[in-house]
Here is the input.
Amino acid sequence: MLDGQSCDEYSCFLELRIVERHSMEQLLSSLNLPWTPDWAAIFGVERPLILDIGFGYGHSLAHLHRTRPDHNIIGLEVDNTCLLKVEKAIARHGWHNVRVVYSFAQTALYHLLLPGTLHEVHINFPDPWFKKRHARRRLMQRDTLDAIVNRMVVGGKFFLATDILDYAEMTHELLAQTPGLTNDLPTPWANAMPERAITKYERRALQEGRTCYYFAYHRNQHPAPDVPVIKELDMPHVVIKTQLTLDEMLTRVNVPDYAGEDGTHVRYLERYRGERSVLFDVYVHEPTIEQRISVVIVERDGTTDEYTIKLGSIGMPRPTAGLHIAVGRLRDAVLQLSDSIQIIQDKVRGG
Here is the structure.
């Protein structure tokens, strides 16, 4: 890590993250929606829910809007260009029953959706993530599929399309081992499904002669796996008393990377000196959510030797177990600087 960026670089960092935050706040997002949202209030009416994962340029959403006027349709996407394009289409064409959300599928399934609420789930041409080190990024995995089954109503429909045979075979194996879903096709998949909307990617694949593989399942009566909704925790913070200065903590503290057995990773990146604080740029990956946030050491008002270690406002942090770990890692690193540091208050989960 660097020894600390200048005030100008600190200001630039803040301006950049504020612009990012402002952009995100214009969209529905897993970072600004309640965990879990009142979808009827968001749509203005209570209707059965459809989830479209990775809607791209919105062809599937347009089709669902036309063919499912009596449903509320949630589209998930993480490409800002696609999100903004479809937001404009919703306003321009009056897609009253469509809302798009900036969110990874795992985050939405675990944090934004309640069990037994989805009447349809659509997945169109998910990224295959071919490389072995990227395997954990693949959408079709046991945990994610269990969450999908848990969130579906009995009788709900599940559809998936891909143009990659290896991905189709992997998907078939997973679905075959999922007792809560029943195949609606006489074969593991179909190579054509005329009633579906053709996406831009799909049209190009077909024009280039690639075979597409279509899956159609429904949620049966088999009990769903237990996949609880993950709620927010209290905001973590620590108050310390020390003769160390902010400059000393800026230059001396060293926060090692963290890798937990559950797949949680915490990495401290850059650090910046503010007027009354030190700000750390931190990346936190958890199995259901990724966050790029700030953790700060701030002088307490009216004191010269007391500081609060807490989450900063940059990055719209949602207090999860991983963010508690992040604050706790900085606390522990600061404590290693001097035996005389006193903890006045510790609100980090796990102590």
The mean pLDDT is 91. The chain has two domains: 7-22+230-346, 36-219. The radius of gyration is 23 Å.
